[in-house]
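Please decode residue identities from the backbone states below.
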């Protein structure tokens, strides 16, 4: 089975809302190269295609296996958030099934007295959040602070950290994190 690389690249570029020039600028190639590939006038090498796809970003495997029949979703209703926590600490993940997701967005709820184990993730990345209601004690790398509504945090994920609800009501946080190897 042969794959129309040009048509596939064009579909991916359009799905991500990029012009040929914008994709070329992001990937560090000429827009002429993008045009030639999309017209199937050149057959790119794997390394050239990887460089072009870095502007999306997308891996070669994702490029060839991506279902182009359906554009990436942008909106999720509350009942589509996937629970990845438990009764004491609810963590509802946005876009859990999104292929190639690089950002995790969570709606978190900590019951009074709930505490996480001190986490020392192996992957590097960043995480941050804003307390919506309640109070949370956050310890990051040995430093501790109690945060209330409107207070926020942002730190490197590889630092040891722990969350503890020190209030009498549920603490609610909207958070986001990235990770890389």
């Amino acid at each position: 089975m042969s794959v129309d690389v040009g048509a596939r690249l064009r579909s991916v570029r359009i799905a991500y809302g990029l012009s040929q020039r914008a994709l070329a600028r992001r990937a560090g190639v000429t827009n002429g190269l993008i045009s030639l590939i999309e017209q199937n006038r050149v057959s790119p090498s794997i390394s050239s295609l990887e460089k072009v796809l870095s502007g999306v970003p997308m891996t070669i495997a994702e490029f060839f296996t991506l279902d182009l029949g359906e554009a990436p979703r942008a909106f999720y209703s509350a009942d589509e958030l996937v629970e990845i926590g438990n009764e004491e600490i609810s963590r509802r993940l946005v876009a859990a099934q999104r292929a190639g997701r690089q950002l995790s967005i969570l709606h978190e709820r900590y019951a009074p007295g709930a505490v996480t184990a001190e986490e020392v993730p192996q992957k590097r990345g960043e995480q941050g959040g804003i307390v919506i209601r309640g109070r949370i004690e956050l310890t990051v790398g040995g430093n501790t602070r109690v945060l209330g509504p409107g207070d926020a945090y942002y730190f490197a994920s590889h630092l040891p950290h722990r969350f503890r609800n020190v209030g009498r009501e549920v603490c609610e946080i909207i958070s986001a994190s990235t990770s890389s190897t």
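Observation: The helical segments are 5-15, 20-27, 31-38, 46-53, 60-65.
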